[in-house]
């Protein structure tokens, strides 16, 4: 089969590899009908996630048709149309039982190593480094899906692939980010990053009753989408002082909740950005936390900072004093996708939201190297989301 | 992991060797003294060897794990490597104890273990494992304690390739969180303390191995299968050097 493989920083190739097979009794093989490049794949593309191996198959947003099932698979059968969440969950451990699906104990073969690095290991992820299990990803014609009865959701309605694909990650991720804000009537939510997760965070904040959402970015197309499609008020951080703007827009209070939908590779300008780029280049810090710093400074007293953006290592100069003085609440982590599949599919079926609005580019697997490059450049490409049809 | 050095200076040199050390060391010291200030080094060396004869304890033997003095203990209490690890599994104590007590089950989750053959209801057993550098290591073990649903303890019998003793205990975790499993292992590695340090340098640290094994046990008992990616597709691999995946696998193996 053809598959999108990682060969190093900025080096993505489409290769012919062997087809996946059943390795464990709860596995299924899915023929991929639609897959997407996620913003977090760019952290791999730029070489910021350790534990990648040359030849690793990428991709954790995918859906398709079940073509083979292992002996213990009961719910799924050949021919079923499924969306597969990016977290691999056993469904039997304490964390899965408590709906903390992304913290599953039993799916990551590298768990002891993550345990040493982080003091605990979460669920394995598709196509996201050998630290997260090294599972081959779904930017391929076929993919092996472990514990096939647990996380994947069957799609039985006539919704298109493009309408349901993003249940695999970015829609639930944006939704959980908004849910973590504990939104109350009248609340203002500030969202940093108007990429796909940011767009879904904006939409979800409104679905959950926010009075007003303020979106922050510098890429014109993304700000335009946030304003015109997602109905947010927008601030361009390249021409405005974000903290001053937010104070002004909220009558001096600050936003009730702040969402960091950017993570470890924040862009910025001026001395602070140069400081973080330099420290990161010298390996004195692994992640650039510019957005996190802003979110903490902007948030009103007693508010919530919600972090769907990915962090992987160490950060520097985080204003902990401000967070403490204002009594902030921090919510973060990989998305507990299976908890959101049913309710969000319902919202799509009810026509409350059509997630395909974020798609800007459509291609096939052979177009992946160019798509990664374009998605990574952001400015001037008009690229917000790429979907690929492998078969 | 804890590597235990000799605290007491207990004898590790055979009596005949002690006499040789006394005589040889004494001769060397006298020769050194007769050479005046040019013989200082020889005098000191002679005295060190004499001390080995007097006390019966040799630091070099200690570090290399060599012992020529007779002993009844499987692992001298003052020497060896101690390792321990714990995990919580969402199953009952009874079920986990039963699973472990069927010693043939152990190779299912203990990565380097090839087989365990119990005899006399598990009282005695033969263990075969993959040692460092792919060498087969074999030992006979005796179950020295067996408290149903609480504890199993064992030690290797004289004549084994590896001298070891260990225990696994099972305790209810609070609030219905399942069972806490604790494994403690003490062993006298081939090559002594130096061997243990070398093994650690090359990533075969016993504590990591136990933790990896317990993780696989938990996966097997809770999820019904052990997570793996062995045999999945990937693009062409690099021609030389270890890959990130190999390094990760070795680190946790």
The number of domains of chain B: 2
- Under CATH, the homologous superfamily of the largest domain in chain B reads START domain
DSSP summary: helix tally of chain A? 13
Structural class of chain A: alpha/beta
CATH-scheme architecture of the largest domain in chain B: 2-Layer Sandwich
The CATH topology of the largest domain in chain B is Alpha-D-Glucose-1,6-Bisphosphate, Chain A, domain 4
Order of helices and strands of chain B: EHHHEHHEEEEEEHHH
For the termini of chain A, the CA-CA separation is 10 Å
Spatial extent as radius of gyration of chain A: 20 Å
Which CATH class of the largest domain in chain B?
A: Alpha Beta
Choose one word for the global shape of chain B.
elongated
Task: Please count the beta strands of chain B (DSSP E, at least 2 residues each).
Answer: 8
Q: Work out the number of β strands of chain A.
A: 18
Instruction: Tell me the strand percentage band of chain B.
Output: 25-35%
Structure classification of chain B: alpha+beta
Question: Keyphrases for this structure?
Answer:
heterodimer, A: alpha/beta, Quinone Oxidoreductase, Chain A, domain 1, Rossmann fold, 13 helices, 18 strands, globular, B: 253 residues, alpha+beta, Alpha-D-Glucose-1,6-Bisphosphate, Chain A, domain 4, 2 domains, eight-stranded antiparallel beta sheet, 26% strand
Structure commentary:
The complex is a heterodimer of chains A (391) and B (253). Chain A is an alpha/beta fold and 391 residues long. Chain A folds into two domains: 222 residues, Alpha-Beta Complex (Quinone Oxidoreductase, Chain A, domain 1), CATH 3.90.180; 160 residues, Rossmann fold (3-Layer(aba) Sandwich). Chain A has 13 helices and 18 strands. Chain A is globular. Chain B is α+β, with helices and mostly antiparallel strands and 253 residues long. Chain B contains eight helices and eight strands, in the order E-H-H-H-E-H-H-E-E-E-E-E-E-H-H-H. An eight-stranded antiparallel beta sheet of chain B has the order 1-2-8-7-6-5-4-3. In chain B, strand 6 and strand 7 form a beta hairpin. In chain B, helix 1 packs antiparallel against helix 2. The chains are: A alpha/beta (391), B alpha+beta (253). The interface between A and B is large, with 53 and 34 residues.
């Amino acid at each position: 089969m053809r598959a999108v493989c990682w060969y190093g920083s900025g080096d993505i190739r489409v290769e012919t590899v062997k087809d996946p097979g059943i390795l464990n009794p709860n596995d299924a093989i899915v023929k991929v009908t639609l897959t997407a490049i996620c913003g977090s794949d760019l952290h791999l593309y730029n070489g910021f996630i350790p534990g990648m191996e040359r030849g690793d198959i990428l991709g954790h947003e995918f859906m398709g048709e079940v073509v083979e099932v292992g002996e213990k698979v009961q719910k799924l059968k050949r021919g079923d149309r499924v969306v597969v969440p990016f977290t691999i969950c056993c469904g039997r451990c304490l964390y899965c039982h408590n709906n903390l699906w992304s913290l599953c104990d039993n799916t990551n073969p590298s768990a002891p190593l993550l345990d040493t690095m982080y003091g605990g290991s979460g669920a394995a992820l598709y196509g996201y480094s050998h630290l997260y299990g090294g599972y081959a990803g779904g930017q391929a014609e076929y993919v092996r899906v472990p514990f096939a009865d647990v996380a994947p959701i069957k799609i039985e309605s006539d919704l298109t692939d493009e309408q349901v694909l993003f249940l695999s990650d970015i829609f639930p991720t944006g939704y959980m980010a908004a849910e973590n804000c504990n939104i109350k009537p009248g609340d203002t939510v500030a969202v940093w990053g108007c990429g796909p997760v940011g767009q879904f965070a904006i939409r979800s904040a409104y679905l959950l009753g926010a009075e007003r959402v303020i979106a922050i970015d510098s890429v014109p197309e993304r700000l335009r989408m946030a304003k015109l499609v997602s109905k947010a008020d927008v601030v361009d951080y390249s021409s405005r002082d974000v903290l001053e703007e937010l104070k002004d827009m909220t009558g001096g209070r600050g936003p009730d909740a702040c969402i960091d939908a950017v993570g470890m590779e924040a862009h910025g300008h001026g001395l602070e950005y140069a400081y973080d780029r330099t420290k990161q280049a010298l390996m004195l810090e692994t992640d650039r936390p510019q957005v996190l710093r802003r979110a903490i400074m902007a948030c009103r007293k007693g508010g919530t900072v919600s972090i769907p953006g990915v962090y992987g290592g160490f950060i520097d100069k985080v204003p902990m004093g401000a967070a403490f003085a204002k009594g902030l609440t921090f919510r973060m982590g990989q998305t507990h996708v299976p908890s959101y599949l049913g309710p969000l599919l319902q919202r799509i079926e009810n026509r409350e939201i059509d997630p395909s609005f974020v798609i800007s580019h459509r291609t096939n697997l052979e177009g992946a190297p160019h798509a990664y490059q374009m998605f990574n450049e952001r400015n001037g490409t008009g690229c917000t989301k790429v979907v690929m049809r492998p078969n | 992991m804890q590597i235990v050095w000799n605290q007491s200076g207990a004898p590790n040199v055979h009596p005949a060797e002690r006499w040789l050390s006394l005589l040889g060391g004494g001769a060397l010291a006298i020769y050194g003294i007769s050479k005046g200030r040019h013989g200082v080094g020889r005098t000191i060396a002679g005295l060190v060897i004499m001390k080995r004869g007097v006390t019966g304890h040799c630091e070099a033997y200690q570090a290399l794990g060599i012992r020529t003095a007779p002993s009844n203990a499987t692992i001298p209490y003052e020497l060896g490597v101690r390792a321990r690890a714990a995990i919580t599994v969402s199953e009952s104590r009874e079920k986990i104890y039963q699973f472990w007590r069927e010693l043939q089950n152990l190779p299912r989750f203990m990565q380097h273990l090839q087989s365990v053959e119990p005899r006399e209801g598990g009282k005695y057993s033969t263990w075969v494992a993959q040692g460092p550098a792919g060498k087969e290591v074999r030992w006979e073990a005796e179950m020295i304690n067996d408290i149903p649903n609480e504890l199993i303890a064992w030690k290797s019998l004289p004549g084994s390739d590896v001298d070891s003793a260990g225990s696994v205990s099972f305790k209810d975790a609070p609030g219905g969180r399942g069972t806490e499993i604790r494994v403690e292992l003490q062993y006298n590695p081939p090559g002594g303390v130096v061997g243990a340090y070398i093994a650690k340098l090359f990533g075969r640290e016993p504590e990591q191995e136990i933790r990896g094994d317990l993780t696989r046990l938990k996966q097997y008992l809770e999820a019904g299968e052990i997570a793996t990616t062995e045999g999945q597709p990937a693009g062409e691999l690099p021609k030389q050097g270890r890959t990130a995946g190999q390094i990760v696998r070795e680190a946790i193996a």
